[in-house]
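ok here's AcrR family transcriptional regulator:
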Amino acid sequence: MTAAAAHNPASQPQDRRHRRTLRTRAAIEAAALELFTERGFANTTVDQIAEAADIAPRTFFRHFPSKDAVLFGDPSRETERMREVLATRPADEHPMCSLAVALLDLAERIELDRARHLMRAELLDSLANTGEYELHLIKHRWVQDMTILVAERAGTAADDPRTIAWSIALLSCFGSAMHAWLVRADDRPLREILAAVFSETADGLTQAADVVGSAIRNGG
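and the structure:
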């Protein structure tokens, strides 16, 4: 508990409710993923998930709109967390740097439960075409959300070429790092892999910019 919370009794019930909500969501996710693995996604019902998580079905729907949402995740929750991290960054910091810090925060939280994320990845792979459309929607939502975050941070329009390029670059780096982390046999932290991907990508882009700039100055 923070010092501010300790001196503000009114905040303590809210903190407890928030922790209870997080525990319930985690229990639902754990129960659902285990059932999906044992019985298959199509053969698992919300009632079965609720029973395994020791909650009522109506409680399930207070946290997730459907069983699909448990499997595919909810980008909006991560987007709001990233927005909170961005609010702590210096106003004059480059948007790419600010968003990289927000993604590092996401990586550190994902690291806390590698087994669950690996299980989810394996389940998604096993669904083949069943989840292809949903995955497409989730990826599209991530791109949209990241574009909005970059635009907000940079003060640019969502369709500005820089906004789009920075958004895609950030998500590509994170996705590549996430994939590498899930398939690795060692225990190298995701945040270290992400930092390496960012560094190598930045080096490559810097060199590419130098080559393009030189070509333009020299008339192509």
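+1. Confidence is low (pLDDT under 50) at residues 1-5.
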